[in-house]
Amino acid sequence: MKRFIACLVLATCCLCATASAEELGAYLRTHYPSLRYVERYRATHPEDVLGSADAWAASARLAPETTASAVSRRLVGLADQHVALTGAKAGKTETLGVLFRTSSDGHMIVWRILDARITGLAQGDTVLQINGTPTAAWLKSAADLTFGGNTRARQAEAALSLALGTPAAHQVAGAGKTVALRVQRFAQAPRQVALHYQPMTQELARMLASAVDVPDLPEVVQIGNTRVGSIRLGAFAPQYNPTFTQAADARETATPQTNDPDAAMLAGFCAVTRELIGRYDAIAGRSDVMLIDLRGNMGGFAREVRGFSWALTGRKPVKTYEMRASGTPGSVRLEALQDDASCGSVASHKPLLVLVDAGTRSAGELLATYLWASGATIMGERTIGAGGGRDSESQGVALGDSGYRALVSENFYIFDPTEDLRVGEMDEATLVDRVAADGFRPSRTRPFATQSIGVVPDVPLAIDAADLNDGGQGLLLRGLVAAGLTK
């Protein structure tokens, strides 16, 4: 199992590869999936974008020495959640030992506590101030140098990055080694709590993967006159799931000489998928509709997502391509995502709802898209638009002598319900024109993409402070009424 486990990296949808280092503008013009796509998105949604096109302008040059903030300011123009700073000065991932959740209007709560040593906070505490700044103002300011496709989602991403990110990301947000929070528990007096960053260990990563899967909603909840069954999927990190590792190890032990390097991994995926099918059918038997809760989903492994989608809908996922730079100006290259055999599907096909928020990203957006393409109804907020990925071992591009390297998306997903597209090179302008139709909104009748635009809900819902405290039951009621599914 060791030969593939290194590629199962949280919040990355891709396989392992490396990229060469060269000057930023030339690198983006040569290797970025489609700058034409970025420019069209920026022109279509000026209210959502930051920065400028300087990062890929032929005349742009980085100063020999620069700060993480200056580098970030140059790169936010891509509207690309997968942008990140790495390198010697960026540092390694660190965490406060907690996770936050935010509302549409700038409220924030302590959502999960990963480190049991943290006793000054409780889940559900309202965060009133961050380092002396009112929370809504802090989120707005931090979002100005956060990567992603829309303002609200960048605020959710800033809250995640505050809890879990590199020292460079924390420097950009104005945080040092310690973060001072002013918090309040219900009607009690506000109090000050100081949290210190600590290295992100394997044990904390394991606790993180478990914590984000803990449900906020009951398995079955009565909403109006409708029984709603709910399954929470917080990340796709099978390397921390014993069902996956046991099945993968058993397959590898049984067939040690196999020439199929994916055999053990696929055995693990099928074991996890069958486990999901069992949970779903057990809950669906007591429900009128089923809900997949993807709020705050942190992403994960795309092949697991494709299997989950097939299992939940009984339909093969919509044809999907990775759009990459072709090396030829004016054209892009389409590569089909690998199709795996079905691991089975649910027996109970109830109306399917998907709940997303501004914190849903990457593979979470991918699953929402697949379920929507198969007929599910999406409710919630528009997501951040991490609609592609970068290779988990990518080295990105060196940024002059700054000590930083930039990682950016190396592919965008193109979804093709028409099945008219083909593997190989394609005229870039023609493809961008097709996916940019109707303001980049998704379509069941033409190719579409989710890069930058994100998942656009059928039933848009603003999330308020009360929704953070009741697990989302009020939010769900508003969504069901708007969708005509309850009274």
From TrEMBL:
Ranges of residues in domain Tail specific protease: 290-390
UniProt KW keywords: Signal
InterPro entries according to UniProt: ClpP/crotonase-like_dom_sf, Tail-specific_protease
One GO biological process term: proteolysis
Pfam families: Peptidase_S41
A molecular function GO annotation: endopeptidase activity
Signal sequence bounds: 1-21
Residue ranges the record marks as coiled coil: none
PANTHER family reported in the protein's UniProt record: CARBOXYL-TERMINAL-PROCESSING PEPTIDASE 3, CHLOROPLASTIC, TAIL-SPECIFIC PROTEASE
Protein's recorded name: Tail specific protease domain-containing protein
